[in-house]
Design a protein that fits this description.
Helix content is 77%, strand content 0%. It is mainly alpha-helical.
Length: 423
């Protein structure tokens, strides 16, 4: 087994799986957090509330390339530990300033969390891809995805139980408060509920950073592990710009993360468009992630034994198109069900796109991974576009118009784009 030996392969997989669980928990808490900030900060539009996802995912665009430079100096193991440390700082900043109802600085905390995740993902995703044969990378990433989405199912539920419990009644209480001072007192008490959960998260992330540094996680060099096959012209490449399949893959990551966040974080706001109460919609993110979990299990069982990772991507894109059409043509809970089902369609996209896009990059693996991580900014732009446009147009029409082109591009990449420049 290359590049990891059989003796340390299982240990390495377990450590990375736990990391994926952690950043799944931190990432997917953003869905119900949108409801939290809209009430706590008295925001008058969903577009302002969606700055939660904008601040969080924009960090990937700005920090991915610097992350690759950091990793070249620290190596992947210390880079992962540093990423966890930055995330710990970000969770502390968010919890502190959300409690004080300072929206700008609370968003800064989310940006810092996203920055730490950018470093962590720039290291961990290529690490998993090249820990074993590249042909079975989607299977390994599926295992990581199961851990990630299990955490993602839990985080909205826990935030809803400890912070958002009885939010409908709280909204009514704020609206019927006899004075502005009374409203502020209610909201100050509500906002403070987020402090302890985020402080606990900060302590856990700090402890994990120290644990990673002392762990037996082996070092893997992308330039040595992810090389082209013998005799391939890929060995003669001298620039990252000579890999068109990588750049097309970065666009694919952009649209994929956009539709993933739309199906996961925006599903609650989508449901409210039908008049479904907040006490129900705050849990909808968990339904999407439950569907994703099923998709990962299906991928784990079928790739590469029964289906290649590129074929899995093709099937996933087609399902995305069909489920989006289903959401558009139906209404209420059935339409929301189709949006949640997009989680199943989306599940195998990242595990398929990432290894296809970094395949044969050799010495450019770390930089190529950073370029792909930059594509995660799609999670900042596409959902924000949805939140803004739905204020002027029918929300189902906007959802359909944004999602369908994305899935068609993913379909193109799965059929032709991943082979661009390959010989």
């Amino acid at each position: 087994m290359t590049p990891a030996t059989k003796s340390n392969y299982a240990t390495s997989m377990a450590i990375i799986a736990f990391l994926f669980f952690i950043f799944g928990f931190v990432t997917w808490i953003n869905g119900p957090l949108i409801f939290y900030v809209k009430l706590a900060f008295r925001l008058d539009t969903d577009s302002k509330a969606f700055l939660v996802t904008t601040a969080f995912y924009m960090a990937y665009f700005f920090l991915a390339l610097p992350s690759s430079w950091i990793l070249q100096r620290t190596n992947m193991k210390r880079g992962m530990a540093l990423g966890l440390l930055v995330m710990a700082i970000g969770t502390f900043v968010f919890g502190t300033f959300a409690t004080h109802r300072n929206y700008s600085l609370a968003l800064t905390g989310l940006f810092i969390i996203g920055s730490g995740l950018s470093l962590l993902q720039t290291a961990s995703n290529p690490y998993v891809s090249i820990l074993g044969p590249i042909e079975s990378a989607a299977k390994r990433i599926s295992i990581m995805g199961i851990c990630n989405k299990t955490a993602g199912i839990l985080s909205p539920i826990l935030l809803s139980l400890f912070v958002l419990k009885g939010i409908n009644k709280l909204e009514e209480k704020v609206n019927t408060a006899p004075s502005e001072q009374a409203k502020e007192a209610i909201l100050n008490d509500f906002a403070s509920k987020v402090y302890v959960p985020y402080l606990v998260m900060a302590v856990i992330l700090l402890a994990l950073a120290l644990w990673i540094l002392r762990s037996s996680l082996p070092e893997i060099k992308g330039s040595e592990a992810n090389v082209a096959q013998e005799g391939s012209s890929q060995k003669n490449k001298t620039s990252i710009f000579q890999f068109p399949h990588l750049w097309l893959g970065a666009v694919c990551i952009f649209v994929y993360v956009g539709v993933e966040v739309m199906a996961g974080d925006a599903i609650g706001i989508y449901g409210k468009g039908f008049g479904i109460p907040t006490d129900q919609t705050k849990y909808f993110t968990s339904f999407t992630l439950g569907a994703m979990l099923l998709g990962y299990i299906a991928g784990l069982a079928s790739i590469p034994k029964y289906i290649s990772q590129q074929k899995a991507l093709t099937v996933s894109a087609i399902l995305g198109i069909l489920f989006t059409a289903g959401a558009f043509l139906t209404s209420n809970y059935i339409s929301v069900g189709f949006v949640a089902a997009l989680g199943f369609a989306n599940a195998m996209m990242w595990p398929s796109i990432f290894p296809l896009a970094i395949n044969r990059l050799g010495k450019f693996t770390e930089k190529g991974a950073a370029i792909l991580i930059m594509g995660i900014v799609g999670g900042a732009i596409i959902p924000k576009a949805f939140a803004s446009l739905k204020e002027h147009y029918n929300f189902q029409t906007v959802f359909f118009a944004l999602m369908i082109p994305c899935y068609f591009y993913i379909l193109y990449y799965s059929i032709k784009g991943y082979k661009a420049g390959m010989k």
